[in-house]
Design a protein that fits this description.
This protein has helices at about 5, 10-25, 25-30, 215-225, and strands at about 45-50, 55-65, 65-85, 90-105, 115-135, 140-145, 145-150, 155-175, 185-195, 200-205, 230-240. The chain is of the alpha+beta class.
């Protein structure tokens, strides 16, 4: 997946994971026996999170302490600079939408490990990036197996689309555990998704004597290969239990 999405998420993931361990120290050491049997158990949680597909919301219903079902919806619409595809930078607009349904299993019931969950489910996503190369005048641009001196801005136009794809999801996370009372909790998650081949359109604004159609098609295929397969998925957020 593009650099703009694959690098920011792990950094946020590590930062909020450390924060969550301090902010929720009382929850980490809590045990169900500490609460009176008459305490009403929270069965629902709502939250907001940031993942590969943007900012969004999620809802969790808790069947019991060890099994939850979670629904998510995320999106992003932004102008981005220096987005890298096949070692070439592009400036353009990115639009992403995604939704998912997951089962979260908490295998341990006590101690700090009780906040660890294993998640599996399905995810729907639809993404589009459209832009032009951001190389400056006289920069060397490499496309396919050829290189040329950039003599004009926006030498290349690119559009990459993952249209209405559904993919299996598997991950492991920490947080959003059933609580005996209302309150906030951090949640972090790291997993894997599979992305089918995207639809890629690549055109050139330079002379065919400098960049011919063969090299342009080779570059287009390189982008398809780069943007398909198994990718790391990361999410960080906060939830409210009620």
């Amino acid at each position: 997946m593009r650099n703009k999405k694959s690098t920011a998420t792990p950094v946020l993931l590590a930062t909020l994971l450390g924060l969550s361990m301090y902010s929720n120290a009382d929850e980490l050491t809590a045990d169900a026996s500490e609460y009176p049997s008459t305490t009403k158990v929270s069965k629902h949680a709502i939250g907001t999170s940031l993942n590969n597909f943007g900012l969004g919301l999620f809802y969790t219903y808790k069947f019991n302490d060890n099994l939850h079902i979670r629904a998510t919806a995320h999106g992003l619409s932004a102008s981005l600079d220096d987005v890298e595809y096949s070692d070439t930078d592009y400036d353009g607009n990115d639009d992403s939408q995604a939704a998912g349904i997951m089962l979260d299993w908490y295998p341990v019931s006590k101690g700090w490990q009780r906040n660890i969950f294993i998640s599996g489910g399905l995810m729907y996503f639809d993404t589009e990036f459209e832009g032009s190369s951001s190389a400056r005048l006289n920069d060397v641009v490499s496309i396919g197996n050829t290189s040329f001196i950039n003599t004009r801005t926006s030498a290349l136009n690119l559009k990459v689309e993952h249209e209405s794809q559904v993919t299996p999801y598997f991950g492991i996370g920490w947080g959003n555990k059933s609580r005996k009372e209302r309150g906030f909790s951090f949640v972090t998650e790291l997993g894997f998704i599979y992305m089918d081949d995207p639809k890629v359109t690549l055109t050139s604004n330079v002379s065919t004597t400098v960049l011919d159609s063969v090299e342009l098609e080779r570059e287009r295929n390189d982008i398809i290969d780069e943007e398909s397969g198994i990718f790391l998925f990361g999410s960080v957020g906060v939830s409210y239990h009620f």
